[in-house]
Design brief:
This protein is an alpha/beta fold. Helix content is 27%, strand content 27%. It has ten helices and 19 strands. The strands form four sheets. The chain has an eight-stranded mixed beta sheet with strand order 5-6-4-14-15-16-13-17, with helices on both faces. Helix 1 runs parallel beside helix 9. The longest helix is centred in the C-terminal third of the chain and has 18 residues.
């Protein structure tokens, strides 16, 4: 089986590794460098606390890989299980938290519902007064996406995957409805176009996924949206044991980094969220946004305030679908789509890569029920609702 994987982020590399592990002859093309898209700008969160079963199941299946990544791939990805702490300000959100925890625990997650006072045991600098409930999972945490890219890339190469950077897909060809070939060329102006005959193309192009779909005559509702992160010097320092803490209703979050610094983030203007050109968007941080992010964090955590110094920051792209869930399917014969994770691609990459291989070899998967992630759900009006999005 000959497979072309489009996209050299962690999702594409996981798919390439899983496909080659099943015996496929795999070529991966990335028009930039490996991990230089959304993966390189991710916050690195790994969590089970979602509001839909399919997201929780993708998380739990992926955690099996993340927890043993160093043993499997020989690369320490800096996995730290500080937990995730979600905070609710309203009774309505608190009730949703109760339902979420019940569902998560039913599936095997270690989530628990807390009072605001109990939440301060995990985050000592938290002001409990604005909140009515919280959820916490000690098995959640963070890892380094760039190290994960290195681990997957090295393992894929060892299995014979032909990884080509600075190489773009320029067209896909269909015969009798099936994708049968792809045109690829180096981004160098002098490069010549090569035609690759394939059994499958895997669209793991993230923020570029819609344009790859267009080449096959497929309309994918995946939009590139800009998100930012700031690195700050909190006063006092956030203990490294503090979980990634999310004030869900304001969208504000923070987490400790090493050496006393912290990351703060959040998307605060839901009505001002235009699509971006993934080849020409501002990768820098807006200072006004950073000040606002610190102000939001200061409203509920003593670590932030007027003395907090903003060191630096960056912006990246979420590949967003209308319901904040990925499209994971064989969209048309010969084209497998694994994109639109809406900010959750890094953490769900291991399971998603395995599922791509299952789809190519078996026509389906028994790892997770992915039927809710079919791309035609938007036309059928059967969209999902993920409420735990930051």
């Amino acid at each position: 089986m000959d497979v072309l994987v489009v996209g050299g982020g962690v999702v594409g590399l996981s798919a390439a590794y899983s496909l080659s592990d099943r015996g496929a002859n795999v070529t991966l093309v990335e028009k930039g460098s490996l991990g230089n898209g959304s993966t390189a700008r991710a916050a690195g969160g790994i969590r089970s606390q979602f509001s839909t079963r399919v997201n929780v199941e993708l998380s739990l299946a992926s955690k099996e890989v993340w927890n043993s990544f160093e043993d499997r791939f020989g690369v320490d990805i800096g996995l730290r299980k500080n937990g995730y702490l979600f905070l609710a300000r309203s009774d309505e959100t608190a009730e949703q938290f109760r339902e979420n925890v019940e569902m998560q625990r039913e599936l095997g997650a270690e989530s628990e519902l807390l009072t605001p006072a109990e939440a301060t045991e995990h985050c000592p600098g938290l002001d409990p007064d604005p909140f009515v409930a919280a959820t916490y999972n000690p098995d959640d945490g963070i890892a380094d996406p760039n190290l994960a890219v290195q681990g997957y890339a090295e393992a894929a190469r060892e299995q014979g995957v032909d990884i080509r950077t600075k190489t773009a897909v320029t067209d896909l060809h269909r015969e009798d409805g099936r994708v049968v070939a792809a045109d690829v060329r180096g981004v160098d102006d002098a490069a010549e176009t090569e035609r690759h005959e394939v059994d499958y193309v895997v669209n793991a192009a993230g923020a570029w996924a819609a344009s790859i779909g267009e080449m096959a005559g497929v309309d994918l509702p995946i939009a590139p949206r800009r998100r930012q992160i700031a690195v700050v010097d909190p006063t006092p320092a956030v203990p490294e044991s503090v979980p990634l803490t999310i004030d869900l209703e304001t969208g504000s979050y923070f987490r400790p980094e090493r050496d006393g610094v912290a990351l703060v983030g959040g998307h605060f203007d839901e009505d001002d969220d235009p699509d971006q050109d993934p080849d020409a968007y501002d990768e820098g941080m807006d200072v006004e946004w950073a000040a606002r992010a610190v102000e939001h964090a200061a409203e509920y955590a003593e670590y932030f305030g007027l003395d907090t110094r903003i060191q630096r920051g960056w912006a990246g792209l979420y590949a967003v679908t209308p319901d904040h869930h990925p499209i994971l399917e064989e969209t048309v014969p010969g084209l497998v789509t694994v994109a639109g994770f809406s900010g959750h691609g890094f953490q769900h990459a291991p399971a998603s890569g395995r599922i791509v291989a299952d789809l190519a070899f078996d026509g389906g998967t028994d790892l997770v029920d992915i039927s809710p992630l079919a791309g035609d759900r938007f036309e059928r009006g059967e969209t999902l609702t993920e409420r735990s999005v930051a």
